[in-house]
Amino acid sequence: MAPMDLRFAAAGGAQDALVALFVVLLAAKVGEEICRRIGQPAIVGEILAGVVIGPSVLGVVEPDDVLEVFAQLGVVFLLLAVGLESRFADMRAVGGRALRVGVLGVILPFLGGFALGEALGEGLEVSLFAASARR
Q: 94-127 b/e with 16+ CB inside 10 Å = b?
């Protein structure tokens, strides 16, 4: 008897897509429950579960076009839920600080990259490219 193959790919047809989606959702709920029990945000458990069952660790589920669509829908619904839970008063309370962090998080790396390009004797185009490149 051959060992059971636990890899699922949604490209094999509608039934395989449903099985792969079920495995992803089940892993996400298990990860969510584990993180809730140890006092961590549920989203952390869901993301870690996806990493564990994905091709990077166990390879139980292989991503494809069908799962990509569901992943994009999940991101849209997550952002919608976050937006619905956000209160304007809370955003206004941290708005100034968030604006400063955001601006400094863009301007300082930009200036640093530009200065590095100029210090290395590169032209304006290369220095601007280095300034705008991230990671």
A: eeeeeeeeeeeeeeeebeebbeebeeeeeeeeeb
Q: Which two tokens stand for residue 28?
A: 């996400």
Q: Tally Cβ neighbours within 10 Å of residue 87.
A: 8
Helix (H, G, I), strand (E, B) or coil at 65: helix
**For residue range 56-106, what is the model confidence (pLDDT) as tens digits?**
889 888 888 888 888 899 889 988 988 888 888 888 888 888 888 888 888
Token pair, residue 6, equals 């636990």
Q: Which token pair is 9?
A: 């790919």
Query: Would you say residue 6 has pLDDT above 70?
Result: no
**Strand, helix or coil for residue 26:** helix
In whole angstroms, give the CA distance from residue 27 to residue 17.
Answer: 15
HSE at residue 36, side-chain half, CA atoms within 13 A, is 9
Domain residue ranges in the chain: 8-85, 88-132
For residues 16-39, give the mean pLDDT. 91
Cα 109 versus chain centre, distance: 22
